[in-house]
Amino acid sequence: MTPKDKKQQEKPRLHPRNQNRERYDLSALITSIPELKKHIIPNKHGQKSVDFANPQAVKLLNKALLHHYYGIEHWDFPDKNLCPPIPGRADYIHHVADLLSENNFGKIPTGDAILCLDVGVGASCIYPIIGVVEYGWKFIGSEIDPQSIATAEHIASSNPRLDKLVEFRLQSKSKDAFFGIINKEEKIDLSICNPPFHASKEDADNGSRRKVKNLTGKKEKVPELNFAGISSELICDGGENKFIQNMIRESGKFSKNCLWFTTLVSKQSNLKGIYKSLENHKVSQVRTIPMGTGNKSSRIVAWSFLTKEEQKEWRESRWRIAV
User: Could you tell me the pTM of the whole model?
Assistant: First the structure.
C-alpha cells in the first residue's frame, strides 16, 4: 500500500496514536472473533463492512477490536448495556494523555503513578481498558448501577493486565459525580467522563430513530439501539448540560485533589454555558480539545484549579517515577 493509498484508508480526524486510524482489517478481526463473519455485509459502495445497524454485530466488532489491538481476552456484559465505539473512546484517552504531557515538558507520563477517575465507568470498563493498555495508568471507575460495577469488575479480574490497576467505587447518589467517590486526601491526576446525553426517554428514542434511519434508510417507531444502553447510561434529568454543570460545581470542592478535570461535550450549543460556569467557579485554566470520528464532531473540555506553580509542584511530587 502506497503512502497515498494508506492516507485514503485512514478514518478522518482520529488521533495519530489511535490504533484504529486505518479502516478495519476485517480478516484479522474475524480471526480474533470468528462469529463476526456472519455479520459482514456489503455497504452502499459494495465493499465488505460490518452491519452497524445490528447491535450484536457492533458488540462482536468491539470484542474483536479489543482482542486484536489491545490483547483483551475476556470482554462481555449484558446486551442491555451501552456498547461503546472503541475508536472514539480511544481518542479521548490519547487526547488527555497529550494534555498531561503539557505538564511534563511534552512527554506523556506513563505507568501506575498516574491515577485517573472515570466518572460513570459503565459495564464495559472501556476507558480503563484503553488507558491501562496504552499508558499503564491506574484507574478508579465510579458507577451508580451495582450490576454495571459487578460486570466491569468481572472484566478487570478476567484480564491479568487490568486486574491490579482498576478499582471500582459505587456512587450511592445519582446526582453526584465526585462527592462520595474522591477521598479528602486523595490525589487524582485526571478525571474523565462521557456524560449521559439525553434529557428524557423521548429524547433518546428520537435520537435512536435518527440513527437507524441514517444507517438503514428505514423509519422505525420503536428503534433498536445499535449501541444499546440502559437509561442511566443515556439519560439524566437536564441531559448533558445539567450533568456537566453539576460536575463543574462539585469539582470546585475538590480543586486541590485533581490536576485536570475533563468531560466529553457532544452538543456544541452547551459550550457557552459551560465556559460561563467555569469562569464563575474561577478555574485557573481551561482547554477545549476538538475530536471527530467519521461525520461526528465533539470535543473534550478540560479545566484545572491549580496555578502554574501548583501544577509544577504536582508533577515534581507525583510523576518522577512515571516519566
Answer: 0.86
Domain 82-318 homologous superfamily, CATH = Vaccinia Virus protein VP39 (3.40.50.150)
Q: Return d(Cα 124, Cα 101) in angstroms, integer.
A: 27
Reference 289, options 276, 309, 271; nearest CA is 271
Q: Among 233, 297, 293, 238, which Cα is nearest to 265's? A: 297
Contact 39, 60 (CB under 8 A): yes
**Strand 296-304 relative to strand 285-293: parallel, antiparallel, unpaired?**
antiparallel
Q: Residues for the chain: how many in total?
A: 323
Hey, where are the domains in the chain?
A: 82-318
Contacts of 97 (CB under 8 A, 6+ apart): 108, 134, 135
Quote the CA–CA distance of 299 and 226 in Å, as a whole number: 23
Spatial distance between the Cα atoms of 49 and 213, rounded to a whole number of angstroms: 18
CB 170 within 8 A of CB 146: yes
Pairing of strands 188-193, 115-119: parallel
In angstroms, the Cα distances linking 268 to 60, 96, 293 are 31, 19, 15
pLDDT in tens, 76-133: 999 989 899 999 999 999 999 999 999 999 999 999 999 999 999 999 999 999 999 9
The helix (run of H) or strand (run of E) holding residue 135 is: helix 126-135
Q: Report residue 138 as a C-alpha cell.
A: 491506574
